[in-house]
TrEMBL record:
The keyword Transmembrane applies. The keyword Transmembrane applies. Keywords: Membrane, Transmembrane, Transmembrane helix. InterPro entries: DUF1093, YxeA-like_sf. This is YxeA family protein. It holds the Pfam family DUF1093. The chain crosses the membrane at residues 6-24. PANTHER family: HYPOTHETICAL CYTOSOLIC PROTEIN. The lineage of its organism: Bacteria, Bacillati, Bacillota, Bacilli, Bacillales. It comes from the Bacteria.
Amino acid sequence: MKELLFKIAGVIVVLIIAFWGLTFTENEIIDRYNPLVKEKDVYALTKGPAEPDPDYPRRFMYMLNGVDESGNESEIKVGIAGQTEYQDTYIKVRVKGSHVFSLEEVKESDIPEKAKEKIKK
């Protein structure tokens, strides 16, 4: 009986460690479904035209240094359809880890102060 309890406890510990380790991945697919990764809004400023995306033909991308509402910085990859669609604009990106849910253009006045300070640097 004790042996069975130790095995069950061992399996539970391994699962906890595995789920905890998943929070540190930079994989879009895993981040999308991982319940431990939180969704957040990230603000960024695009500069110049988008670059061709090497992973997807006929798509363009920006590699941006985004800032969330608290002022925490993170690098995000945003895929878009047109090369000049969001050129030199402020954008708000809804992300969960490295997975991008949505993208919208925003005015500078809509960006939280902590994020605005870091974006302008």
